[in-house]
């Protein structure tokens, strides 16, 4: 599989999972450490618009602020540092993530908006959890006034405002509820 070439100033859906679907986050501490390492290695290299950390995979929406080589190296450093710490913690060896992180270039603003909602609803998709209260997605950062690494203002502008941001998430959530209702 040929990987998408990363381009400066473009938006991407970055995601990966544990090798063979294995767990990559065993607890909240693992997820917090991953986010800490993400901030450390990606500072000024990418802008983050959304994220969600599930037990066996993660999703990010990013915009590249520098050239591909720097971003690819930053992600490599992030994944290597996280895998080493995780493996040490649970006394395991070997690869943690699938070989390459996946990346899809987002071609238009509408797709970007839909993907932000999709990523925030990931806990609902996989575990029927209320995405509004899920601790390890960027949804709460959009609702908060606290300082964040998320491009909150720019992200909200895509939806026009916070009210419409929430409305779009609730609409998609309602569709998911209807999809899973059996009579």
TrEMBL record:
It comes from the Bacteria. Residues 7-122 form the Transposase IS200-like domain. InterPro entries: Transposase_17 (IPR002686), Transposase_17_sf (IPR036515). PANTHER family: TRANSPOSASE IS200-LIKE DOMAIN-CONTAINING PROTEIN, TRANSPOSASE, Y1_TNP DOMAIN-CONTAINING. This is Transposase IS200-like domain-containing protein. It comes from Flavobacterium ginsengiterrae.
């Amino acid at each position: 599989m040929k990987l998408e070439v990363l381009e400066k100033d473009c938006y991407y859906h970055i995601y990966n999972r544990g090798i063979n679907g294995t767990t990559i986050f065993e607890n909240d501490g693992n997820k917090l450490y991953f986010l800490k390492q993400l901030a450390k290695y990606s500072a000024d290299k990418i802008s983050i618009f959304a994220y969600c950390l599930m037990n066996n995979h993660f999703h990010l929406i990013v915009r590249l602020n520098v050239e591909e080589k720097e971003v690819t190296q930053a992600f490599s450093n992030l994944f290597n540092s996280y895998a080493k710490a995780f493996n040490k913690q649970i006394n395991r060896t070997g690869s943690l993530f699938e070989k390459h992180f996946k990346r899809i270039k987002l071609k238009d603003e509408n797709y970007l908006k839909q993907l932000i909602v999709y990523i925030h609803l990931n806990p609902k998709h996989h575990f029927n959890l209320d995405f509004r209260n899920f601790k390890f997605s960027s949804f709460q950062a959009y609702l908060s006034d606290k300082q964040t690494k998320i491009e909150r203002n720019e992200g909200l502008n895509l939806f026009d405002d916070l009210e419409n941001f929430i409305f779009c998430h609730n609409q998609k959530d309602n569709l998911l509820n209807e999809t899973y209702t059996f009579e």
